[in-house]
## 1
Amino acid sequence: MDLAITGGTLVTEHGVYPADIGIAGGRVVAIATPGALPPAGETLDATGMLVLPGAIDTHFHCRTPGYDERGDFYTETRAAAAGGVTTLFEMPISNPGCATPAIFRNRRRLLEEQAIIDVALYGAPGTLSRDDVHGMAAEGAIAFKIFMHRPPLGRDDEFIGICLTEDEQLFQALALVKETGRRLVVHCESDTMLEAGIARMRATGRTDFAAHGESRPPAVEAVAIARLLTLAEALDASVHVAHVTCHQALAVIRRFRRDGVNVTAETCPHYLLYDEERAAALGPYARINPPIRSAADQAALWSGLADGTLDLVTTDHSTYLPAEKERGWNDIWRAPSGAPGVQCLLPAMMTAALRGKITLQKAVQLIAGNPARIFGLAGRKGTIAPGADADLCLYDPAPATIFTREMMFSQARDVDKLYEHMEFQGRVIATIAGGRVIYREGEILAERGSGRFLAAG
């Protein structure tokens, strides 16, 4: 064996128990009772720690190429590694948008040059070209992504092939993606309702933080989800609803799921940890689409996790420069939407588990097991089992840890106001990816470009 992890408590979806783990050739080869493993080339003592599957963040925006000043695959996978995340799914927003096989191949080249963990890529099916969609699937696209609203003002190049506002277009995209056997992930907000809401706010001179949320209330999200799932039902297509924020959206998903529609759904830590009143203090740094909602909606999301309506938790990690966000203090419409968060995904869910909000097994299911199953990586990712990739996190559950700027690895650390100064229960001690120790006690140990492109299947 190349590496042994001894003395720890193994946490899987199915149980929590003491075990030692043997690793060889980048994979788990043995799970043994404590003290039973033969000698290994290297041993990590995990006494007092929880040993978890590496987390999978399936909703991540690096945006390379085009905006490297905000971060690239190197800087942002460093942040992931420091947070116990060993696999990322990169969304197709880049400059240009990732909507053709040629653009897809270029993004793969960049991640292979830069990343330190495994990264999968989404394609965008919005050209509605069979050659483009099947070509990206052949290149290994993990899934496909579409927005149901128009591109943000001035960002058309980034969203080429990614935005489809009309039902007939969305229907065609669903049919093309179904042919590939992959899942379509959809940002669900009604374009017409959203644009009308923004126009109403701006007509009254509203530029405050609350105007953003009021411009796109829960119905904007729920109506779009109902349209999407009606089309998916007609085609018997597999869909995944991104970043669910509210009770109304959950109710729609439940109804269609009861009728047999193949729909999965996610939410994000910022929706679980913040409500709109708390977020208001952060102003433009908390401007996110869809918006952070009411305390009642926040409580509904936790219920959705408990009853299985929500299948996974993911970050929607988005990087910006401070100057871009600061514009929003005087005019919220001038700040871009999104926030970093990949380094806090695993600590946030472990804190919920360690403080009794959910079980440890449920936390692992939401950030590792379910993401792997939904996107066709079960058995390889999201688990600790013989034959699986040796992607692991050693987590010390004991200390209360305040997350500070000095601990952050994202290039966008100066806009990470959502999590700065937040208290988490425990901390990531070490991250192992493919059998390599890539992070330990505040230090990144992996070299630029040591990660891998993760193809579907």
Note: The longest strand covers residues 392-402.
## 2
Amino acid sequence: MDDAHLVERCRLGDEFAWESLVRRHQNRVFAMALHYLRDREDARDAAQEVFIKIYQGFGSLDRDRAFLPWMLRLARNCCIDRIRRRKVRTPDVAIPVDEFHDLASEGPSPEDDSLLKGRRALLYQALGRISPKYREMILLKEIQELEMQEVADILDLPMGTVKSRSNRARLELARVVRDLDEPTADSRGAQHAMS
């Protein structure tokens, strides 16, 4: 059953449709909140708040509008509000990457697993170093796998701006990953002097 059908059933008060809708999207909303907020408890609270807003907002959702971009826009706005409130209270705290990215699997060897963890840690470290507008673009376009038009709708930006920002975000992320992955000139010089 697609989202549009579930939303219509939710509007009619179908509790099973609501439960299905929440189950279908709870991980996506939580992951998005975690990327923005970088705190598991805060992300859980934000995800709950998003679903409360969704439930209360069914009446305002245009029947011709897709549910997913509407939901993600609510999630984004909720996270931005929480970040604004947090900036007033406490400074931003970095979270160790391995705290929320368990990569254990049955298939890869320990060496492959270690390499994969290293690459993922490098990627998340790089994501933490690019500008928030580019990080948001990577989150929506690459991690959430949204179409450009959906991203434009969520961010309320013209399509041309979204395309150029997406391109710049990928280039910036690639530059930061490359810089983090390469040994610094000082360490290369020190290694050369030791040999």
Note: Confidence is low (pLDDT under 50) at residues 100-105, 184-188.
## 3
Amino acid sequence: MEYCSNGAEETEALGEALARTLRPGSVVAFTGDLGAGKTAFVRGLARGLGIGDRVTSPTFTIVNEYEGGRMPLFHFDLYRLGSAEELYDIGWEDYLARGGVCAVEWSEVAAEDLTADVRVDIRRGAHDGQRRIRIEGGEA
């Protein structure tokens, strides 16, 4: 499905709607422009999972963990990884086994090793603030 978002609130609302369809162990792989709203979408995922924590980009920590909802959310940012092997060095398989949702920004870094249930591509739209969002494999 393709969507047009005209602001962060609409992008978060799509993430919130998608979260309601996810199951333990779901992997959501994100691609898209730098600064296009991937973290805003993940904020919506967290809200849809019932997580009230403030969601921030894990660019420098690689992964942020959020608990307290109907299942945990593990928010990855692979932008700084040099290869897919580094994903396993940070415990990827352990996160999968914990029964939460893994939201993976810059998933193309590990595309060959990453099996995703849902793929979300976010691109800048025709004007400032507008985003084109394509979701494959889930229902938002």
Note: The chain has a mean pLDDT of 92.
## 4
Amino acid sequence: MKIAIVADHNAVPMKARLAGWLRRHGHEVDDLGVHDDVVVDYPLLCEDLGARVVSGAAGLGIVLGGSGSGEQMACNKIRGIRAALCHDTFVAEIARGHNDANVLVMGAKVVAPDLAERILTTWLTTPFKGGRHQERVDQIMALDRGESLR
């Protein structure tokens, strides 16, 4: 699968590690940067990655920041993106299995490198369960389109 990945200046080492992990596990990696510790504004990075996921140029996306909190907010402003901030494997499993998250967000200042690999593994290998969860995802996407659920 083609997976887009991006990091702000706080998460360059984590991005390099996870991109390598993805390649070793047979994924095509679309590395959107950054590649150094020069301070950048993450919303533009999130927009670039989100556009690739929504267009289908990438099957999934990974966004890495300091805490991941702002990145998750920025990603979820992009129509069609369901970004999940995951600091443990339980949330990663729920994000994919129940919410069909198409973007994984992690904070390099919060998640240790070994745990980041376990979170990524869980996120990539957990299938979406559908059923009652599909109904909820449909509701999320209706909100994304500006529709009322009332």
Note: The beta strands are 2-7, 28-31, 60-65, 83-85, 103-107.
